[in-house]
Design a protein that fits this description.
Blueprint (H helix, E strand, L loop, with lengths): L6 H11 L12 E10 L11 E11 L2 E11 L5 E2 L5 H24 L3 E4 L13
Parallel strand pairs: 3-5
Antiparallel strand pairs: 1-2, 2-3, 3-4
Length: 130
Amino acid sequence: MSERVTYKRLLRQFAAIGPYLREDLCEEGRYRFDCLSVCVSAKPAPDKREFWGWWLVLEQDDHHFRYHYQLGFYDADGVWLDKPVPKKHQAEVERTLNHFYKLLVDRLTVIECHLAPAEQVTNELAVTAA
């Protein structure tokens, strides 16, 4: 097994993936990511725009990580809401989630860590690196 995986090292690894990490919402052993996949309308000011996308929580137990995620709506107040993604945006939201998942798996593999879905993730909802 590789060296101990420290909180700071993990934050650096996760930040290197791209703009997904929400460091202000992370704590040791629990990491939060999200993606604003599809903008609802470009008319409002940038800080008031709403999006369809996903958020993912990664929980750590030594070199093992479990994830669970949710698809939904990011409102003008910056709050994620559990709302069904409209059919016309589902493919893009799923594409960005699968893209992130592949990057996450690659990053965890480099530091000899393992990733698996949390118990609440059903087979239909498990993401793949495809």
